[in-house]
Amino acid sequence: MFSDGPLTRRAPETIRYGTGRCALGALLVASSERGIVSIMVRDTPTRAVRDFGARFPKANLVRDEKGSKATVAKVARYIAAPLRPFALPLDIRGTDLQQRVWGEVRKIPFGETSTYSRIAEAIGAPKAIRAVASACARSWFAFAVPCHRVLHTGRRREGRQYDWVEYEAKLARIRKP
């Protein structure tokens, strides 16, 4: 499990979260004072809450369904039609390399894909293919940082990432003029 590194070096913070449903399953959206820190899509709400707790083991996690309701609804609408870049504020935490990878991933247009090697080249680290793959695996921003659009070789495989790519491909076909 990937825990939030920066929290090991500072006092615990309060992170509020809410749950709901989206087109792909149970949705959990968590926010700090600076923005959304995590968007999770899981099979069940229980699994989302468990994974979220493991992600932020030192934070004060506050379930705030009422306060998070509007944000959860906006994220669910975005997942249903991720046609434009994600507009809500994000509190993205990671190393400098992860930040660069996630910034580049956010540039991939809806309905398109890239590869780990193309992302590595775009951030100026062409030999960092494994680091790009690792950064994509460590992203906790389902659809807001669309790491599911980054494929190993450009070929589709099985698994949640590829299910999400297929979901976007179907949406793209429906929305073409």
Task: Describe what this molecule looks like in 3D.
Helix content is 39%, strand content 18%. The chain is of the alpha/beta class and 177 residues long. The strands form two sheets. The protein has a four-stranded mixed β-sheet with strand order 3-2-1-4. The chain has a two-stranded parallel ribbon with strand order 5-6. A hairpin with a 4-residue loop joins β2 and β3. α3 crosses α5 and α4 crosses α5.
Structural class label: alpha/beta
Rg is: 16 Å
Oligomer: single chain
Largest sheet: 4 strands, mixed
Mean pLDDT value: 85
Which residues form runs of ≥5 with pLDDT under 50?
none
Number of strands: 6
Give the SSE map:
Blueprint: E1 14-22, E2 25-31, E3 36-42, H1 45-55, E4 60-63, H2 65-80, H3 96-105, E5 114-115, H4 116-122, H5 129-137, E6 150-151, H6 160-175
Parallel strand pairs: 1-4, 5-6
Antiparallel strand pairs: 1-2, 2-3
Helix pairs in contact: 3-5, 4-5
Short description:
The chain is an alpha/beta fold. The protein has helices at about 45-55, 65-80, 95-105, 115-120, 130-135, 160-175, and strands at about 15-20, 25-30, 35-40, 60-65, 115, 150.
